[in-house]
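Supplementary Methods, section 5.1.

A reviewer requested that the exact input to the structure prediction be made available. We therefore reproduce it here, unchanged from the version used in the analyses.
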Amino acid sequence: MHVKLKAAAAEQDLLPNTVAAYWFWLRKFYAFRQRPASSWTGADVTEFLCHLHRLNYSASARKQALNAAAFFFKHILKADIRQLNLPPLPRERQTLRIIPTREEIGRIFAGLRGQAKLMAALMYGSGLRVSEVCHLRVQDIDFAALTVRVHGGKGDKSRLTLLPTLLVPALRRHIAWRASLHELDLANGCGLVELPGR
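The structure derived from this sequence is encoded token-by-token as follows.
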């Protein structure tokens, strides 16, 4: 089933995170139904989603489960899911966004040290997401132009963002430390890594 899902996802150009989410829900669906996927029907989907409703799953989780089932029926089973009789989804509340004050930001950074502090500073100063900071490479940082290039961010989009001058010394120190660590790894016969697509 997973192989077929990956093949269909590649045809439809789905993002890896979407494929992982769909696979998660399809596994749950299989555990609930305990029957081969080829015998699933729209009624099974209705029962599964009612089951999630009874367990108080959030509206977004239930929508994701429904999308996974709809994708599976349409692109893998090549079958019509038909009309589903589903419980109503609760309205999602619009929450107020709270922006921390400078003093609060200062207190947050005062409690951070080392690499975690540098990562948080990049998120705050350059507007990077957590995953974008984790995937950042040395060649993505341009100290001369004071920019950071983000590859494959949200929605698989790339963009250029600013690098605060305040972070340049800390970043240079971090890169120098990682370079020396890499040299040590290479001397010990390690330090090689695959970077698919990059």
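Strands lie at 141-142, 147-150, 159-162. These observations are discussed further in the main text.
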